Amino acid sequence: MYQQLRLIFAILVISVCHTNTEAYRILSINSSPSRSHVIVQEALAKELARRGHHVTMVSPYPSASSLENYREITVPIVKPCAGAMASMMKDQSGWAMFMTMLSISDVFMDAMNNSINHPEVRRVIRKEKFDLIITPVIADFVLGLTQLLDAPAITVCPNSIFGYLNGVVGNPNPIATIPSPMVGLTSPMKFFDRVTNIFGWLLETFFAKYLKYTSEKFYYSNFPADQFHPYDDARKNISLLLVNQHFSKAGPRPYVPAVVEVGGLQTKSKPDPLPKDLQDWMDGAEHGVILFSLGSNIQSSSIPGEKLDAVINTLKKLKQRVIWKWDSPDLPNKPSNVLLRPWLPQDDILAHKNIRLFVTHGGLGGVAEAQFHGVPLVGIPFFGDQPGNLLNVQRAGWAVVVEFTELTEQTFTAAIKELLENSSYTDTARKLSKLYRDRPMTAMDTAVYWTEYVIRNKGAHHMRYSGVDLNFFQLHLLDVWAVLGSVVFLFVVIIIRVCKFCCRSCCPTNTGLSSGKKNRKVKSH
Asked: In the beta sheet, which residues pair with residue 290?
């Protein structure tokens, strides 16, 4: 009976979510050099088109198939960040990682600027009306379009929320309980973890200031100050922030109403059909398949020779077949059990019944897809939130982490054998998959509902948290405590002076006559 009621409820929810009283016009822009980040936003845009809305998607990556109500404008990235990623492979220091993040953000800013100034995009913006704008998390200067098009904006965050976004929507960020993605910690944090987290928070703050400084210049070059709202006002004009995170994976944290968790937004309950060669390769794998992908930014061909040999030597000894996201035409000494592809339908591969494990860099999108489908991980983290993501997964019991600096044939082989021979990792992954899927609405239904909610309610300004308009001192009541402290200090000073005055009045000092008598008395002794 209980299962029947759940099924009826699910049908009602889906029917409500699929019922649109009006078709809206939506402009979605994302020129991230990380294709995996665009995929998350693109998934929402395509679903909105399937549900009857008219969507224009601006990105560097054209889709393989067309979709009704879905228009693509492809603007290639002029300055890719492959060089920075290749340099990072050689230098794994914290400073190199941080500089790589800055380089990627610069590429992102430049690509977004090129996108909104592309002739076709400018024509669309000038001649068409839109009910909503969907933007990425970085390059918020595009929020000037909200005034130009007189439309609200929502932002899709492809990973967990971080300091830069917390400030934009006024979301609380308790440093004592929420680990910074910059330092690779998990909650709960012990004393020295909290000390480290302060430095992570400072690093986030510096990164946020850098992004704001860079984005502000692009804002005023596209939206002149004499015609548009100030940049600080525009960047806070976000009606909704959709975060590709879920508390069952990263733990609970506080959110204001304008922040909604939609972890696994790009995952599909019913996978799309695989290309025939991939389908045949996986179906014919007697001992299962291993997926190897380091994401869209990190190129496997940039792995230094010694470490690449360690990976190849490990893979060729396995009975399992391997699908490897490889970005160059060929792989020297490629083992016969390895299939190379420059791009892969990752979510659909992870849904296949023969998948055994996933070798990943720890990007949040890949981790979410693996958890959704119950696939254990061998993690090789590099930068950003990847160490923290994989540390969470390892502590949860469904991953083994191999640091890139410690990657050898021995360590890589040991990690893969541990997952293949110890069924507890797969059992844990499947158990957490059930927990991850157990929601009143799917991630996509949740995202679509709130997206349409913002449009229906003309930007949903009633969800805007007043903390957005407070500076650091006001938000933490430092100005109030300063005034109260001054008042208390002044009150104490007054009380002390009054007490001294009273003491002098009631107990006057000795006169000269009394002093003389005292002196004479002393002499008589």
From this structure: 322, 357
